[in-house]
Amino acid sequence: MLTVVLMNITAANxxxxxxxxxxxxxxxxxxxxxxxxxxRQDHTSTIAPDFSLTARPCPPFCAQPMQVAEGVTTIGxxxxxxxxxxxxxxGSGILIDARTADWHARGTIPGSVNIPFTRxxxxxxxxxxxxxxxxxxxxxxxxxxxxDFSQAKQVVLWCNGPWCGQxxxxxxxxxxxxxxxxxxxxYRGGMQLWQVFGLPVVTPDGQLIEE
Length: 211
Prior knowledge:
There is one protein chain. By secondary structure, the protein is of the alpha/beta class. The chain has a domain of 136 residues: Rhodanese-like domain (Oxidized Rhodanese, domain 1, 3-Layer(aba) Sandwich), CATH 3.40.250.10. Helices cover 21% and strands 18% of the residues. The protein contains six helices and twelve strands. The chain has a five-stranded parallel β-sheet with strand order 4-10-9-5-6, sandwiched between helices. A hairpin with a 4-residue loop joins strand 7 and strand 8. The longest helix has 11 residues. The chain is globular.
């Protein structure tokens, strides 16, 4: 189970580069490790080369709309951090890396669970068995006919950034089977904007990746 440990907000005073004016750092448990979420303090730090490209072919790497679907809220970094400190902390929320396994293996946002978009969208080939396995992590159970969303978790889905369609596809798949739109959040900035803010990236087993 993912847990979050809050750190004293006064710790922000000890850092030069804070997350917000009032928050310097906090911790997320990722697998067996505790990861400190804080921005890099090195003023010469730059974004990883994979996320500095500006001419990715479209399709498939096309600009995604700010609102991916009606009723689904798009969030930024401040809202994501708040989600990680609250819903992720108390178990009512889950943070989903909706990218394919090869992207996930190259680094993920701490606290994330990898459920590829292909496992959440029937139009991408997800059958009832695949959906059942995936949805069980979201608090959804299978009924004789359809799904029981009464205990569905608040879900933040993300992928590589504003040019990536993997999390939008996952969101549309969840909506198509009845997942409540009000419980879905879209972190449009994804890995690219997470790195732009100098926030930590880890391997799937929780090893901090230093660029």
